[in-house]
Amino acid sequence: MSTVDDRTDPRVARTTTALRQAVVELAGQRPVSRITVAELAERAGITRATFYNRYATPLDPLIEALHADLETGHRLEERRRAEGRPGPELLRLATAEVADHVERFAAVYRHALAEPADRGVYDALVRHFADYALAFLARAGDGALPDVSRPVVAQFLAHGFAGAIRAWLADASVSKQDLVDAAVACAPAWWAGAAER
Question: Residue 29 belongs to a domain with what CATH number?
């Protein structure tokens, strides 16, 4: 995996960008488990040795690309929080940002959910949501939250939201707005208040 120091080297940044773009394109065409390092390296314009200097499998840069896109939404959420937007609005906008992310990468997620060997994509989504929930809970402080295990709450929320996304992707009759409405309706009552902190 790339490190923070990699971002300062323009060559490494170009390689990272090329790999992320190539793997997203390929994973949009077929499951990532069916993508070879040789074809990914060729598509990205790098050598296999360069790939293996940073990653173990094509799944690694794919997860990195998906995570980077999700983080863009989180930065937008932080700006909105700094503007003083109310909690219910922040919750709806943050949920919509995730839905937009999934929509941008719908082919990737659909391939991953249909292929058991690609469970790592779904697992990474759950991990991302769990990490986000833990950071959210830590920022909210003790006063706004029930006195329960935060790691358990984070896992409950992460698996629930990822499951809702899976249901949305599996049923063409469910719209993006349906997903957002359902996720917001299922959010704990204390979440919107904690979102303002």
Answer: 1.10.10.60
Same domain, 168 and 72: yes
Phi/psi region, residue 63 (left: phi>0; alpha: psi -120 to 50; beta: rest), is alpha
Q: Are residues 24 and 88 in the same domain?
A: no
How far apart are alpha carbons 59 and 118 in whole angstroms? 8
Q: How many domains is the chain built from?
A: 2
Range of the domain at 32: 4-57
Per-residue H/E/C for 89-152: HHHHHHHHHHHHHHHHCHHHHHHHHHCHHHHHHHHHHHHHHHHHHHHHHHHHCCCCCCCCCHHH
Give per-residue pLDDT as tens, 24-82: 999 999 999 999 999 999 999 999 999 999 999 999 999 999 999 999 998 999 899 88
SS3 state at 173:
coil
Give the predicted TM-score (pTM) of the model: 0.87
What would the two tokens of residue 39 be?
Answer: 């074809």
